Amino acid sequence: MKELIIASAAFALFILCPRMAGMTKVISDASHTKLIEVVVLGTVVALPLIIAMVLIFARYGLMAALAFAVLTDFASALLMREISMKAGLETLIIALFVLIGVRIASIVSGWVG
Asked: Could you tell me the pTM of the whole model?
C-alpha cells in the first residue's frame, strides 16, 4: 500500500504542468466559466482519457500515445472554436508547439546519447 501511495503522489505531481494551467485559464476566460469549476469537471472528464493514454502507451508505444495526445489537442481546439475562434486558435497553436517541442527534444537528446 505504501508503494501505491508514493507512486500515486509522484504521478499527481508529474501530471501538473504550466501548459495545463495556461490552457485552463484560456478555456475558462473564453467560456466565461469559473476556473475551479472547469478544473473539477474537466478532471472528471479527463480521467478516462488519461487511462486511455497510459494503455495506448503501454501497448503501442510513444508514437501512438503522442498521436492520441495530438488528436485530443485538436479536438480541444475544435471545441473551443465553438465558444471563441481566438481561444480555438490559441489551443491549436499550443498543440503545434507541443508537437514541435517533442520533435526538437528527440533530436537534441539524440546528440547526447
From this structure: 0.69
